[in-house]
Amino acid sequence: MFAVLGPLYRRVSRKVELNEPIEGLSIGVRAVLDLLRAQGPLTVPQMGRAQALSRQFVQRMVNEAAAHGLVEAIANPAHQRSSLIRLTDDGRTVIDAVITRESALLKRVGGDLTDADVERCVRVLTRMLEVFEDVDVN
């Protein structure tokens, strides 16, 4: 499984990077936008934990996204010093376009794979992620 995951991750990352001129997104900014799209406003530390990335890296990606008007900081009622980051309307439009384009690309993978096959794969990968959740990425 690990022999497949590394090359797959690198190839998918490269494909996203090659499409970067279309939306102007780095893979890191794309990951931040996708996470905010899925989960709503989050703090930078929450995003780092969710994506197994360092807080510093996520902060750089948030800063890049903010510079392009894709995210904004809002007050966090639970913590005065750690703002919540949320998508702007432009950010939602951009990440929705990315997801639509990527979904069309992924449909080409289909072949003889069933929905059940894909669901099992996601279940296995999710379980693997849980097994390695204690690995410090900072």
Q: Report, as a whole number of angstroms, the end-to-end distance.
A: 25 Å
How many DSSP helices?
Answer: 7
Main sheet attributes: strand count, strand direction, barrel closure? 2 strands, antiparallel
Mean pLDDT across all residues, rounded? 84
DSSP strand tally: 2
Radius of gyration: 16 Å
Percent of sequence in beta strands: 5-15%
Describe this structure in words.
This protein is mostly helical and 138 residues long. It contains 7 helices and 2 strands. The protein has a two-stranded antiparallel sheet. The longest helix is centred in the last third of the chain and has 19 residues, at 89-107. It starts with a helix and ends in a 7-residue tail after the last helix.
How does the SSE layout of this entry go?
Blueprint: H1 2-18, H2 20-23, H3 27-39, H4 44-51, H5 55-67, E1 71-74, E2 84-87, H6 89-107, H7 115-131
Antiparallel strand pairs: 1-2
Characteristics of this structure?
138 residues, mainly alpha, 2 strands, globular
Brief overview, please?
Helix content is 66%, strand content 6%.
